[in-house]
Design brief:
CATH topology: Rna Polymerase Sigma Factor, Chain: A
CATH class: Mainly Alpha
Radius of gyration: 17 Å
Protein name: RNA polymerase sigma-70 factor (ECF subfamily)
InterPro entries: RNA_pol_sigma-70-like, RNA_pol_sigma-70_dom, RNA_pol_sigma70_r2, RNA_pol_sigma70_r4_t2, RNA_pol_sigma_r2, RNA_pol_sigma_r3/r4-like, WH-like_DNA-bd_sf
Strand content: under 5%
Structural class: mainly alpha
GO molecular function: DNA binding; sigma factor activity
Keywords: Sigma factor, Transcription, Transcription regulation
Family: Belongs to the sigma-70 factor family. ECF subfamily.
Shape: globular
Number of helices: 9
Distance between the termini: 44 Å
Amino acid sequence: MEDNYIVDRIREPSTRRYGFNLLVKAYQERVYWHVRKMVIDHEDANDLTQNIFIKVWNNLERFRAESGLFTWIYRIATNECLSFLKKKRRSYWVTMDTLENDLSHKVDHGAYISGDEIQLKLQKALIKLPDKQRMVFNMKYFDELKFEEIATITGTSVGALKASYHHAVKKIEKILSED
């Protein structure tokens, strides 16, 4: 379904709810997996995804269509993930190592986590990256977004994103070679 069709339904007061339902149907799964790769835990990802769509609903009148609908939603999702992780560290007085161990445990024992041994090792390596590097890596590697798209979503220059991705790849290679 075309974003323009969804936006037109949302902008029309009589079809606003219908348009929003189309938006959720079009993007909910992608947003969930984007969030899930960052927070690891299914319950947290589920809650965050719901919060993201509430935020989208509350801010629909601010969407100017200067960027695509997907880009706008992903920007909200990205910011929510980073805020959630920062808040989690602060509110629970969690050190980076403790958070890494917790997330690593969820990768190993999570009811909704599957994958072969290599995939699980990659997930554990990603957990050790700084949040923003992990986000860039996930968007580039898993979501297959172009650096230009990631730049629009994150508000970061393409050059900085390329450097961040390069550093993330090198760290992952190092972590995987140590195992």
